[in-house]
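dude i think i finally got it to work??
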Amino acid sequence: MDRLDPLAELVAALQRLPGIGAKSAQRLAHHLLRSPRDEVEALASAMLAVKDRVTYCSICSMITDVDPCAYCTSPDRDARVICVVEQPENVLAVERTRGFRGRYHVLMGAIAPLQGVGPDDLKVRELLARVNAGGVDEIILATNPNVEGEATALYLARLLKPLGVRVTRIAMGVPVGSDLEYTDEFTISKAMEGRREM
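look at this
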């Protein structure tokens, strides 16, 4: 018998999610089995809606259901300052500080040669196009404070400085080796205030 039963199939599907091991997948599957049908349908519907309606902003690459996104179209945000982050989750981390009122650019990763990720795999060309279009005074490099994030920040600084834009790096109040996504608002806020010229 090579066909999985529905419960085993669900456990196997849940295990493919990041951070979900065999035991967690089994607990989740049994929870869904015990849940009322309408709750399971609502979950399935929300998952399908994300796949059908959510996309990436054509300007900054943030996750959005309207293109361009609210960060890029808001008249209350300063278009002269762009905060560069690695992933969409990092935008949410910076936003939690309530201290940054500029715009964003999501690279969709960091330079990681050992994983086969180079500058051409990131949204670097798009960032350069935004700067070359004019109206940008400062680029804040808020890549993660780890080896890949530092390499990415240095690479971007070398490309951006000749374009006549101020290039700053968030201060290292953020612990080295961590992800912005898991850093508290106060630490990120202090890191933004203490950013330095590159």
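The chain has a mean pLDDT of 91.
im so relieved honestly
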